[in-house]
């Protein structure tokens, strides 16, 4: 190895150590409700029950298969991605059970991608609820098994529904969508 190659190899090794030391790991969410600020994102592992109440998450939220996420009055920078979650309540309407529990909508700066969720374990809540949220990105729902409620949101992007077992409801409170609407709603 010549002198220049050795210097480049040493510099590359040092750079990778510095980059690794500066990386921010995602916070795992399970247990008592979280509030406050979380940098580096949030992960809900399989079997975990995550509640965000007035939290700020920088780096997005990922829900792994079997995880449950309930988020109320929070700000999520980086979007929400869930594949195989057991239940997702992202804001809830004022009429939700249990009566008297207020779950304000959220601000989500990024898209929401939910696939293969349900059929839901938090009865009588739907398996997916996206209600009273301000979402700055696309909302894509694919291949979900349980009831879906999309109500009273402002979505600055498209709303796409494909291959879900049930047609979403909106409780008579349509969402404002600035992008394409590729989703049919139940008229009940």
Task: Explain what this protein looks like in three dimensions.
With 188 residues, this protein is mainly β. The chain has one domain (26-182). The chain contains one helix and 19 strands. The strands form two sheets. Strands 2, 4, 6, 7, 9, 10, 12, 13, 15, 16 and 18 form an eleven-stranded parallel sheet that branches. Strands 1-3-5-8-11-14-17-19 form an eight-stranded parallel sheet, with no helix packed on it. It is globular and about 40 Å long. Residues 1-23 have low confidence and may be disordered.
Amino-to-carboxy terminus distance: 74 Å
> Unreliable runs, pLDDT <50, ≥5 residues?
1-23
**Biggest sheet details:** 11 strands, parallel
Total number of strands: 19
Q: Give average pLDDT, whole number.
A: 85
Number of helices: 1
Helix-strand sequence: HEEEEEEEEEEEEEEEEEEE
Work out the count of structural domains: 1
Helix percentage: 10-25%
Strand content: 35-45%
Rg over C-alpha atoms, rounded to the nearest angstrom? 19 Å
Shape: globular
- Structural class by SSE content: mainly beta
